[in-house]
Amino acid sequence: MDLTALRTAHPEHWMKAAAIRALTLDAVAAANSGHSGMPMGMADVATVLFTNHLNFDPAAPHWANRDRFILSAGHGSMLLYALLHLTGYEDFPLEQIKNFRQWGARTAGHPEFGHGRGIEVTTGPLGQGIANSVGFAIAEEIQRATWGTAIVNHHTYVMAGDGCLMEGISQEAIGLAGMQELSHLIVFFDDNDITIDGKVSIADKTNQMERFAASGWHVQAIDGHNPEEIEAAIVAAKADKRPSMIACKTHIALGHAAQDTSKGHGALTDADQMKAAKAAYGWTAGAFEVPADIKAQWEATAERGKTARAEWQARVEKLSAAKQAEFARAQGGEAPKKLAATIRAFKKQASEEAKSVATRKSSENVLAVINPIMPETIGGSADLTGSNNTKTADMGVFTPDNRKGRYIHYGIREHGMAAAMNGMALHGGARAYGGTFMCFTDYARGAMRLSALMGVPAVYVMTHDSIGLGEDGPTHQPVEHLSMLRATPNTHVFRPADSVETAEAWELALTADTTPSVLALSRQNLPTVRKVHTNKNMTAQGGYVLADAEGKRQVILIATGSEVEIALKAREALQAEGIGTRVVSMPCMDIFLAQDEATRRKVLPAGPVRVAIEAGVRQSWDMILMGERGNAKKAAFVGMEGFGASAPAEVLYEKFGITAENVVAQAKNLL
Ligand SMILES: Cc1ncc(C[n+]2csc(CCOP(=O)(O)OP(=O)(O)O)c2C)c(N)n1
Ligand SMILES: [Mg+2]
C-alpha cells in the first residue's frame, strides 16, 4: 500500500483517521491485549461516516433521533472508543483510552452497553450486532410511521466483519431485513479477507455481494481506504429504498508489519513495529497524544448533529403537551399508568370465572388487554403465531406496506428474532416480545444471554414448556431449559400456574427496567388455582403459600406452572391421611431467591420435608431443596454468581473472590 499517496490526496481526512489508528495502537499496547487490526483497517470508513453523515451529539448521547452506530465486529472496540473520545463524549476522556481493558474502565475488551454513554449495544459475540441492527431499524420504521419524519427519521449504520457474516445468525438478519425493505439500515462489511486462523478462503468462499442481493439488499463494493468512494457509496446507500450493504475492501492493520495477515487481527504491541506504522501514517505525536488541531477537527464532526438536534427539539416542542409526554414516556421505557389497574381487573375476572385454560392462551388473553393500552409493544413469533398465541387483534402486521403494524412475522429465525428484540428495546420507545417453543430457546440463546448481560427487558414468550406438550415428542420437550435459563444471571424465568399468575408475570415483565423475562407457558389446559382474588401481585414475591397445611405441618410441596395442579392433588391425598401439607407455588424462583431471608423462611420454614415438582431437571432446585436448613449449613461454594468483567485475569480472580484465601476463610467459617 502506498500510504503516502493516500495521505497527500486527502490530508485532513488522513490525519483524522490516523488519530484512530494511533490511539488504537497505544491503547492495545498499554493493555498488552486487544485487537489492533480491525480499527486500523476500518478507520477510513468510520472517518467519512462520522465526518459527513452520522448525526449525533456527544452532549446528548441519548437523543432519540440520533443515527445509531453499531460495531458488530465488537473485537474492534478501540475503533468505537477512539471515535467517542475524539468526538468529545464526556464518558470517554483520554483516561478511559489509557485504561483500555482494565478493571472499572468504561473501555472494556468488547463494547458493553451501559458502561458509557455512546455505546449503543454490547457486541463481541460475532453476528449479534448486525442482527440487533434489524431490530433498531424496525423500531425506527414503526416510530417514523407513527410520529412522522419530523420526530423520527434516522439511520442505523453497522460495521460487520468476515466473522459476523459467517455466523448463521447473519443469514437470519439479512433475510428478514431484505424482506422488510429496511431502507434506513446500512451495513459496512469490513472485507479484509482475514480472520484469526488465516485467510477467509480456508473456511469460506461465499460471494457476500450475491448473498445480500439474493435477499433483496442494495449492494456496492468499494475501496475501503478511498474517502471519495466511501462517501459516494454512503450517499447511494441512503438514496436506495432497500437495506444497503457496502463491501469495503480494506487492509487489516493497515501500514503495520502485520498488515494483511491474521497476526494483524490481534494485539500489535511490538514497539519498533508500532513506531514504523506511525511513521508510515506521518504521525509524529507521542503516545496517547492527539494534536489539538486534529482533535478540533474531530469535535467539529458533531456540529451537524448538534444543529439537527436543536431543530428536532423545536419540532418536538410544537407537539401538544400530551403528545410530548407520551413520546417521552415510551422512549423512557415507562409503562402506562393504566397497566396496573388493567392487570388487576383481568385477575379478578380470571379468579371469578375460574376457567381451565392453557397458560399460552391466558397469555394471549392478557396481551389482548395490554396491547391496546401499550402502543410501544412490538410482538412477534418465529413462525408459531397460532401456537405461541402472541398476536392480538389490534396490532396489525408490520410489512413494507404497513409500517404501523406492531406484529412481526419473524419467520423461522429464533436467534435473529431474539437479537432483533434486543435491538428494538435498545433503540428506545419499544417493548419487544417474541415467541417460539420453549425447547428452541437453545436456538435463541446467544441473543437471550445478551439481553441479560445488557439488562434489556425483552420478553420471551416460550410456549409448550414441558412433556405436557405430548405427541411432538422429546425433540420438542424442554427439560433442561428452565434450569439453564435460571442459571443465566439477570434473567427472570416465570412459569405461571394459571391465568392469574400469567397476568402477574406479564405485569412484572412489562414493568422491568433492566431484566429480561422468559414466560414458560403450557400447551395444555390448566385449572385456575388462584380462585380468591387479591390485588397484590403474588408472583412479585417469586414463591408464596398457595394452600397451607391443616394440622401439624409435616410436608411442603413446591411446584411451578402445570405441576402446581399435581401438588394440590398430592396435598389432598396427604391431608386425607392426616399428614399436614403446604403447597407453595413458585412462579419465579429467581425472584424468590432474591427475597430477604425472613420472607423465604416464612414460605419455606425449616422442619417439614420438602418435595419439589417440576417437569424439568433437578439442577436449579437444589437451592430450594437443600438451602436454608439443608446441607447448606455444612457447605460452601466458591465461584461465580454473576457475569464477569473486563480486566487482567489475576485481577478478576481477586475481585470475584476465587482465591485460596477465600477458600480458607469459607472452610474455617463452616468449622
Ligand atoms: C460467536 C463468536 N465466535 C468466535 C469469536 C472469537 N473471534 C473474535 S474475532 C474472530 C475472527 C473474526 O474475523 P473478522 O470478523 O474477519 O475480524 P478481523 O480479523 O477481520 O478483524 C473470532 C473467531 C467471537 N468473538 N464470537
Ligand atoms: Mg476479517
| Terminal CA distance | 68 Å
User: How much helical structure, as a percent, in the residues?
Assistant: 40-55%
pLDDT below 50 for ≥5 consecutive residues: which ranges?
none
* Widest β-sheet, arrangement of strands: 8-7-9-10-12-11
Query: What structural class should be given to the helix and strand makeup?
Result: alpha/beta
Major β-sheet, in short? 6 strands, parallel
Ligand names: thiamine diphosphate, magnesium ion
Beta content comes to 5-15%
What is the overall pLDDT average? 95
* Total strand segments: 17
How many H/I helices? 27
In angstroms, what is the radius of gyration? Answer: 27 Å
Shape: globular
Describe the protein in words.
The protein is of the alpha/beta class and 671 residues long. 43% of the residues lie in helices and 12% in strands. The chain contains 27 helices and 17 strands. The structure holds thiamine diphosphate and magnesium ion. The site of magnesium ion has 6 residues, from loops.
What features would you highlight for this structure?
671 residues; six-stranded parallel β-sheet; globular; binds thiamine diphosphate; binds magnesium ion
In short:
The protein has 671 residues and is α/β, with parallel strands linked by helices. β7 (377-381), α17 and β8 (407-409) form a beta-alpha-beta unit. The chain starts with a helix and ends with a helix.
Helix/strand layout:
Layout: H1 3-9, H2 11-31, H3 37-52, E1 68-71, H4 77-87, H5 94-98, H6 128-147, E2 156-161, H7 162-166, H8 168-179, E3 185-191, H9 208-214, E4 218-223, H10 227-239, E5 244-249, H11 271-281, H12 292-300, H13 303-317, H14 321-331, H15 338-353, E6 357-358, H16 359-370, E7 377-381, H17 385-388, E8 407-409, H18 414-427, E9 431-437, H19 441-454, E10 459-463, H20 481-487, E11 492-494, H21 499-511, E12 517-521, E13 525-526, E14 544-547, E15 553-559, H22 564-576, E16 580-585, H23 589-593, H24 597-603, E17 609-613, H25 622-625, H26 649-655, H27 660-670
Parallel strand pairs: 1-2, 2-3, 3-5, 4-5, 7-8, 7-9, 9-10, 10-12, 11-12, 15-16, 15-17
Antiparallel strand pairs: 6-13, 14-16
Helix pairs in contact: 1-2, 2-3, 2-4, 2-11, 2-12, 3-4, 3-10, 6-8, 6-18, 8-18, 15-21, 16-21, 18-19
